[in-house]
Amino acid sequence: MKRHRNILLWAGFGVTLLAFLSYFVFFARFPVTRDFPWANLILFIAGGWLLGIGLRRAFSESERYRGKVSGTVLSALSLLVFGFFLFYNFYLAKQLPSPSDAPHVGQKAPDFTLSDTNGKPVTLSELLAASSAGQNSAEKGNKAVLLDFYRGYW
Amino acid sequence: MRGLEQHLDEFRAHGVRVVAISVDSPEATRKLCEKRGYRYTFLSDPKAEVIRRYGVLHAHAGPGGQDMARPAEFLIDATGTVRWANLTEDWRIRARPENILKVIEDLKLGSHFAR
Fold it and tell me: Which has the closest alpha carbon to A122: B79, B43, B30?
């Protein structure tokens, strides 16, 4: 008798890959799904559930379903992907040096001059001076500057 | 950074100028801004000098082992004083723009000039 293809194993592996990739291309864009990756963990659970059913079929109903070898390989790969996801999110992302000499609240912010996207030099003190200058004019001037340091390498 | 762009009008309404800093070159940064439609100011610190001065250096963390900045936010008032700072313990997790706006409202930065 010809045995059925064990489609659940492949579906489970596919969902696992989706669970991994969708974090970086989609869910990391939104703080709600980025700060704690619950959406991706749900997808991983779904993938694992499909793989689990597929494996049970492959081993306990082996006269009807294929997939003993492919199921084992796909499950191992899925575990590896899941493990790397956990490693990245809950270990690697927390490996930051301690910000020993960052200016504290109440301290003066160090002045600097850097190039903008047109190569034009921009100085913090000028930005801040522009801040207070606008106060008495009809135009509502800047009261503060928000400096946002980011990792870069986009 | 998308969040900052989405809330940019609110920051402007509060009189706060948003400035982003990274080690990326002006050209790379311009491409990023054009692609994503960012309207606020982006500055380049390729040698990580300012990043180092602000204590937010993440040494050798770049793709080729280059220095880069760890994510961080500083709110600086018109007198040049740091009024609020956020240094995350996890590079995925940044301050949310709505929380920064709440801080700005609570600090009442404008009242300094109203006196």
Answer: B43
The confidence band for A100, taking pLDDT boundaries of 50, 70 and 90, is confident
d(Cα A109, Cα B37) in Å, to the nearest integer? 29
Residue A3's identity, in one-letter code, is R
pLDDT at A133 over 70: no
Q: Which two three-digit tokens encode residue B44?
A: 């380049």
Q: What is the pLDDT of residues A44-53, one digit of tens each?
A: 999 999 999 9
ipTM of this complex prediction, to 2 decimal places:
0.93
Interchain contact, B54 vs A145, CB within 8 Å: no
Q: How far apart are CA B72 and CA B95, in angstroms?
A: 8
pLDDT of residue B27: 95
The total domain count for chain A is 2
Nearest-angstrom CA–CA distance, B109 and B101: 12
Long-range contacts of A110-115 (CB under 8 A, 24+ apart): A110/B50, A110/B53, A110/B54, A111/B80, A112/B49, A112/B50, A112/B53, A114/B21, A114/B43, A114/B44, A114/B45, A114/B50, A115/B26, A115/B43, A115/B44
Same domain, yes or no: A81 and A120:
no
Q: Do B69 and A35 touch (CB under 8 A)?
A: no
Tokens in use for A44? 């991983």
- Token representation of residue A1: 């008798």
Q: Which domain holds residue A30?
A: 7-94
Among B2, B24, B110, the residue with its CB nearest the CB of A154 is B24
- Which residue carries 């956990």 as its tokens? A86
